[in-house]
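input
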Amino acid sequence: MDVSAMVAFDVALRRDDVDSREDRGAAVSAEHSYGRIYPAPEPMIEHFKLLDSLNISNAGVGETSARKRRE
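output
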């Protein structure tokens, strides 16, 4: 299996894991390497904007924009 296939498999496995947890009412935080795989809830995005209005820390987490300034 080549590296790109292994990465694709890892991402697919993580998405399945997130879906399984969410189906049971749980959430997976970005600290567990899932931060770029699942969309962040709107309240969390607003919280990110309050803490980091220039979007310098953790840009792109929770499928938010990776641009350095918020749009």
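quick obs: The mean pLDDT is 77.
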